Amino acid sequence: MKPTSTVSSTSTDDDVPKNYVQHILRTQKQLPPVTWHNWWKELQWINVLVLTITPCLAIYGAYTTKLTRETAILSIVYYFITGLGITAGYHRLWSHRSYNASKPLEYFLALAGAGAVQGAIKWWCRGHRAHHRYTDTELDPYSAQRGFLWSHLGWMVVKPRRKIGAADVSDLSKSAVVQWQYKYYLWLMLGMGYTFPAVVAGLCWGDWRGGFFYAGALRLTFVQHSTFCVNSLAHWLGESPFDDKHTPKDHVLTALVTVGEGYHNFHHQFPMDYRNAIKWYQYDPTKWFIAACKIIGLASHLKTFPDNEVKKGQLTMQLKRLREVQDQIHWASDIKELPVITWDTFQEQSAHRPLVLIAGIIHDISPFLDNHPGGRHLLVRFLGKDATAAFFGGVYDHSNAAHNLLSMYRVAILEHGYQQGVEEKVVPPAQRLRILRYNEMGYGSSSDETLVGDEEVKLL
């Protein structure tokens, strides 16, 4: 998230064609590639200076200034305050409008966000809304498809090769707090980023240098890269429990380093939800802060996505993973693919190979004949005969594993051999619940394309 205050012009949705991404990619000219001959012209030097001078000051201060306990505590507390300015303010309040904030809370978050030195609210939100709208495309300002380093720092250091996608921020133009912060952003950035922590440490316990270097520069370095990890680490490390169409992922480590923004797969699926973590035990201090503000009357109208819809996303991914496991398993032949033979043929073949008839299906049990737990003789007595009653409890009520294994020995179907009352037993237990794609359910398109996507699955 770029630490400058420049705000580009924006377009409303009325100006955006329906095939906007393809239109832009076809008509908008890209900047030339960065080479050894032009790289110095292609850098965003203000960003480069901010991103290099701040950590250099922090390193210098760490070598020349003693860290006191009071200053260390201030640095940690101010890290979380300015981090919340981004996560609870810039991100969840102004970018996604996931809750309503009172004016005192808005001013507090605007000041705290300025202390994180990541640009004015309107500029930051314009880029973030584009990121959500064009995730992983060339119009995404910090697309993870361009690599970890690009999404973490590269997009701020190098001039973008093309203009990022359109995003409407007209609502922010009407906000008095947003406009006030933008008008005075330079002074607020310097004051909240460096001066305020130095003054607090200086006036309270006489540590002016420590306040500037530790609570100022070092804290700022950490809070900036904490936010940058939402663009990089949160699209690289973790799992996709709600949707794997795009790169955002959930991981507790990312949550720990981003003040709770690490459950990014959930966030990209349900961006208007004020939560990132939906489980009570998951680390999301931003969620807890917003909830606390509601309790004391500073926040209201906290938005949550319907739990029923959240569960649909989780179930879809669970079914998809089960389908992947299912596709790796070797299943019994479909009975529709088996040849149909007469009783006489069954008898004739049984004279040469160990065949038994169970539930109208003929099985060649030669691979299991000598491995039967009850002994070979129990199977031999049924060769060339109907063993349906014996198999389904007459001799032994066989386990699911036995039913599944038996289905792998199918070789044919006996003509007119089905017995009333055992039709459902023809399906082995392992196949009574199957994951089917939409186009495999017997209706809809017969092609690989479906109404809801190729990977949509259902449990039958």
TrEMBL record:
Q: Which reaction(s) does the protein catalyse, per the Swiss-Prot or TrEMBL entry?
A: octadecanoyl-CoA + 2 Fe(II)-[cytochrome b5] + O2 + 2 H(+) = (9Z)-octadecenoyl-CoA + 2 Fe(III)-[cytochrome b5] + 2 H2O
Q: Does the keyword Membrane apply?
A: yes
Q: Where are the transmembrane segments?
A: 43-63, 72-93, 105-125, 184-208
Q: What is this protein called?
A: Acyl-CoA desaturase
Please tell me one Gene Ontology term that the record gives under cellular component: endoplasmic reticulum membrane
Organism the protein comes from: Gloeophyllum trabeum (strain ATCC 11539 / FP-39264 / Madison 617) (Brown rot fungus)
UniProt-listed InterPro entries:
Acyl-CoA_deSatase_haem/ster-bd, Acyl-CoA_DS, Cyt_B5-like_heme/steroid-bd, Cyt_B5-like_heme/steroid_sf, Cyt_B5_heme-BS, FA_desaturase_dom, FADS-1_CS
Q: Which co-factor is required?
A: Fe(2+)
Pfam families, A to Z: Cyt-b5 (PF00173), FA_desaturase (PF00487)
The family assignment reads: Belongs to the fatty acid desaturase type 1 family.
Tell me one GO molecular function of this protein: heme binding
